[in-house]
Amino acid sequence: MAASLQFNFKPLFLTKSSTNHATKFATIRCSTSPPSKSYTITLLPGDGIGPEVISVAKNSLQLVASLEGIKFKFNEMPMGGAALDLTGVPLPEETLLAAKQSDAVLLGAIGGYKWDNNEKHLKPETGLLQLREGLKVFANLRPATVLPQLVDASTLKKEVAEGVDLMVVRELTGGIYFGKPRGFSTNENGEELGFNTEVYATHEIDRIARVAFETARKRRGKLCSVDKANVLEASMLWRKRVTLIASEYPDVELSHMYVDNAAMQLVRNPKQFDTIVTNNIFGDILSDEASMITGSIGMLPSASLGESGPGLFEPIHGSAPDIAGQDKANPLATVLSAAMLLKYGLGEEKAAQRIEAAVLDTLNRGFRTGDIHSAGLNLVGCKEMGEQVLKSIDSTVPAAV
Ligand code: IPM
Ligand code: MG
């Protein structure tokens, strides 16, 4: 299975300067794949707009596969609320097993009003956390790039948003999301308590720091580590370890920033950032904020990678139950997640570039879903956007790798 070399090709970088490295490692990886280049992809459509956007991404993958001589076997499995309705749990064993046995996993979105009041172990979100934990995908890469075509969709002034190209490297399987003790209890007055634990061990910090330094090295060589080391012990250790690991990467310029300041700087002057590394919860929050600089959360993909095994690829947006089933969703974040799957999950750089180029071409031809629409452009639904992406894949020749 190709996935076992995932971290040998230290992937990670949606940037022009990375091409040579990515190609080199991709070659290593491809040489271990069977000659037919056949991959099994687990599709987890999930809830809300999930099935709509996954269907578009699947068609895009199928078309690039036919153009690049790749074969995909798609294995669609229930997950989230859909799985709860079907099996009573948000991540059925069969789904996790199928995911583990595949070469890469593509997820739509999970969650919805229907399951909002479920007990914690029966929430769709719990299934997603179990999936991340089960696949051991500790490194979550969330690029936020302002495309020139969409600069007007940003709520920030043009001169602030223009040219932003940053990557949030979020720790994904530790910290307060998983720390123990956690739970509910009562205090001595009989008052209800809810509590969680923010905890990091050195090995968890060291490995995400290395991914972040590698990422920064292949981008513009700047890494900003975001923490709350003025208050939290877990952040004090975080800062100490990141500073220590920095000695392995003398070519990368490291800075540290408190998370409250980082939240402010992201909207004040986002161009100061290249690569940001941060813990699970700060990464969750800052990546949503970063997405708004780009205009719409509907545009942003993500890749979650571990030391070995399949990666998990998903748009960073949620299931948007308010527009589910109405053919209004923007499928581009999922299509771009499929491109990340090809590039970082399978080492299929050229196929990934075909998809990225097609997305740009579709935008250049003026097609917009509601979330990124502005006057004079062609407002389309999810399906039509998908059709236009397919048209662009067919007609756009990507730049040579
Ligand atoms: C995300 C989401 C998830 C998270 C939820 C759905 C559990 O917000 O991927 O950013 O908090 O990690
Ligand atoms: Mg989030």
Give me the secondary-structure topology.
Blueprint: H1 19-31, E1 38-46, H2 50-68, E2 71-76, H3 81-87, H4 93-101, E3 104-109, H5 124-135, E4 139-145, H6 158-161, E5 165-171, E6 183-186, E7 192-195, H7 202-217, E8 222-227, H8 233-245, E9 253-258, H9 259-268, E10 275-278, H10 280-293, E11 303-305, E12 311-313, H11 332-345, H12 349-364, E13 367-368, E14 378-379, H13 382-395
Parallel strand pairs: 1-2, 1-3, 3-12, 5-10, 8-9, 8-10, 13-14
Antiparallel strand pairs: 4-5, 4-11, 6-7, 11-12
3-isopropylmalic acid binds at residues 125, 128, 284, 316.
Q: Can you describe this structure?
A:
Pfam families: Iso_dh. Homodimer. This protein is of the alpha/beta class and 401 residues long. Helix content is 40%, strand content 17%. It contains 13 helices and 14 strands. The strands form three sheets. A ten-stranded mixed beta sheet has the order 2-1-3-12-11-4-5-10-8-9, sandwiched between helices. A two-stranded antiparallel sheet has the order 6-7. A hairpin with a 5-residue loop joins strand 11 (303-305) and strand 12 (311-313). It is globular. The protein starts with 18 loop residues before the first helix and ends in a 6-residue tail after the last helix. The protein binds 3-isopropylmalic acid (IPM) and magnesium ion (MG). 3-isopropylmalic acid is lined by residues 125, 128, 284, 316.
